[in-house]
Write a structure and sequence with these properties.
The protein is mainly beta. The chain is about 10% helix and about 40% strand. It has a five-stranded mixed beta sheet, with no helix packed on it. A five-stranded mixed beta sheet has the order 2-4-6-10-9, with no helix packed on it. The two termini are about 35 Å apart. It comes from Bradyrhizobium erythrophlei.
Length: about 180
């Protein structure tokens, strides 16, 4: 209810701040061949700068975007590489110095959630050729790094690969959801 009221108030504020616009009709009237003689009465000055808002500035550095000017809070970083269709990745980090990377290569309708709560947590998850799988990585404080590659083999089975010597991740499958701790 609060969400709906807030959106309704934003819509009212937006409509109240708009300025009425006037426009010509959608159809162009055809001029007869005898109605126009000589030079055009409307001319554009040559020294008028371009009014294109997305044109880059000339001869200087490009303007920084908000993502690159505001440092991440607590030194957290999250990276995502998605090469597929209809994939969804959510990376939520609470604490400081956490790092997570998610890669989906050749996936369709996959969902990956990384939830980190603590200091200095690391997770790297890659899905290769997987379709319709949901993977949730839960990292409470003091958890070992999670590094894994999940791939679907030609026979349809999943193969979960972790680096040699890495701590064994606890994987629980619930239906079509893999929960990694």
């Amino acid at each position: 209810m609060q969400f709906a009221l807030r959106n309704h108030l934003y819509a009212i504020a937006f409509l109240a701040s708009t300025v009425p616009a006037f426009a010509d009709g959608a159809f162009i009237t055809q001029a007869s061949s005898s109605a126009f003689f000589g030079h055009s009465a409307i001319s554009t000055p040559i020294n008028v700068p371009s009014q294109v808002p997305f044109a880059p500035p000339r001869g200087g550095t490009t303007q920084l975007t908000p993502e690159t000017t505001v440092p991440a809070s607590g030194g957290n970083s999250a990276g995502t590489l998605e090469m597929g269709r209809s994939n969804f990745v959510l990376q939520a980090q609470a604490g400081g110095g956490n790092s997570s990377n998610v890669g989906i290569i050749g996936g369709k309708h996959d969902t990956v959630g990384v939830f980190q709560h603590g200091q200095g947590l690391v997770s790297n998850v890659a899905l290769v050729g997987v379709q319709g799988l949901t993977v949730d990585v839960l990292q409470p404080p003091g958890t070992a790094p999670v590094n894994m590659l999940i791939a679907r083999l030609p026979n349809g089975a999943f193969d979960i690969i972790q680096p040699k010597g890495a701590p064994q991740a606890s994987i629980v499958r619930v239906g079509n959801v893999l929960v990694v701790r």
